[in-house]
Amino acid sequence: MIGEISIDGVFVPSLLVWALIAFLLNLALRRLLSATGVYRFVWHRALFDAALYVILLAVVVAVSARILEP
């Protein structure tokens, strides 16, 4: 995985980009879970959402490492 990504000459840490992607996926997934009523079975919604974000971030980083490695 590369350390930085250049966006119009501004170097942005790759983890920041991956965190933003994971956050957007988290928003969509939370909306889907709320619409389907899955949160009725969750004891602590904020803790569940935080754990879901960490899992999504790990998946995004793993996928990006797999794609960017030769």
Helix content: 55-70%
Averaged pLDDT:
91
Counted beta strands: 2
> Measured on Cα atoms, how large is the radius of gyration?
15 Å
SSE topology string: EEHH
β-strand amount: 5-15%
Distance between the termini: 10 Å
Shape summary: elongated
Question: How many domains comprise the coordinates?
Answer: 1
Number of helices: 2
Structural class: mainly alpha
Q: Largest beta sheet, briefly?
A: 2 strands, antiparallel
Unreliable segments (pLDDT under 50, ≥5 consecutive)? none
- If strands are numbered along the chain, what order do they take across the biggest sheet? 1-2
In oligomeric terms, what are we looking at? single chain
Outline:
By secondary structure, this protein is mainly alpha-helical.
Q: What report would you give on this structure?
A:
The protein is mainly alpha-helical and 70 residues long. The protein has one domain. The longest helix has 24 residues. The termini are close together.
Strand-helix topology:
Layout: E1 4-7, E2 10-13, H1 14-36, H2 45-68
Antiparallel strand pairs: 1-2
Helix pairs in contact: 1-2
